[in-house]
Amino acid sequence: MNRLLQECSVAETHANISSTVLRRVTRRLARSLFIAAGLVAIGVSLAYGWPWSTDMEIQPSIQPQEDPRLPPPDTIPRHGKEPRMDLLEAAENLHNPVQPNATSIESGKRLFEIYCLVCHGPAARGDGPIARKLEEPPDDLTEESAVELTDGYIYTVIREGGTIMPPQAEGLSSRERWDVVNYLRSLQRKAEAR
Ligand code: HEC
Predict the structure, then answer these.
(1) pLDDT value at position 170?
(2) Cα-Cα-Cα-Cα dihedral sign, residues 26, 28, 32, 38
(3) d(CA 58, CA 13)
(4) How confident is the model at residue 166, as a pLDDT?
(5) Tell me, what's the pLDDT at 106?
(6) Nearest-5° angle of CA 11, CA 16, CA 17?
(7) How far out from the chain centre does Cα 165 lie?
């Protein structure tokens, strides 16, 4: 009887030991697999930028309603960006860099007819086809008071617009705005000669 008991407990101990070993091996295997999977995931993400973005909205471009990014530091804009100048400062300090030659006046005429004629009329007399529909009538730009405005002032009015007049900061480039100023001057000279 005693012997039988002894044999039983030895068998039990063997079973205990083998299940403990099995558990330990399984745990170690699981841990190694987990680490291996982690290393693979890190490797893939480094190599292919995973997780991949499926949303085109997330990108470093300028979104609608967002301010344009500032130019990189220590760079000088070659076209386009110009310093903001208020109307009175521009009237005094902003000088017309574009010669009023035939090319400039021709380009100004084409642009004036697209951007200004509807309100100011073909001869800039303030009698364009939609002039009467506006709350405030467009100025007659051949009047003495408009002739006396400086080129820098008119240029800035075109860029910034008025209460009713739409701004053309985006519609017309800097060069195009000066062309419109030159054409307007030619219209004023024509009106004066009459
Ligand atoms: C939608 C109509 C409209 C369009 C288009 C328009 N203007 Fe005007 N403009 C006006 C009105 C109205 C005024 C009177 C000021 C205001 O808008 O508050 C005016 C005023 C002006 C003045 C006088 C500003 C002052 O302070 O004395 C100038 C110069 C002028 N416009 C030039 C232009 C030129 C050049 C264009 C084309 C690039 C143009 N406008 C396009 C409606 C218009």
Answers:
(1) 84
(2) positive
(3) 62
(4) 93
(5) 98
(6) 100
(7) 24
Nearest Cα to 172, choosing from 70, 62, 63, 80? 80
Q: What is the mean pLDDT of the chain?
A: 87
Q: What is the dihedral of CA 162, 165, 168, 172, to 10 degrees?
A: -130
Ligand 1 centroid from CA 140, angstroms? 9
- Which atom of ligand 1 is nearest the CA belonging to 163? 18
End-to-end CA distance of the chain: 140
HSE (side-chain half, CA atoms, 13 Å) at 192: 13
User: Given the CA of residue 146, which atom of ligand 1 is nearest to it?
Assistant: 27
For tokens 């910034």, name the residue. 160
Q: In angstroms, what CA-CA distances link 14 with 20, 92, 98, 170?
A: 10, 103, 101, 87
Q: Which of 54-63, 91-100, 107-116 has the lowest mean pLDDT?
A: 54-63
> How many angstroms is it from 117 CA to the middle of ligand 1?
10
CA of 154 to the centre of ligand 1 (A): 9
Q: Note the Cα 128 to chain centre separation in Å.
A: 34
Cα(47)–Cα(57) distance, rounded to whole angstroms?
Answer: 23
Instruction: Return d(Cα 125, Cα 138) in angstroms, integer.
Output: 9
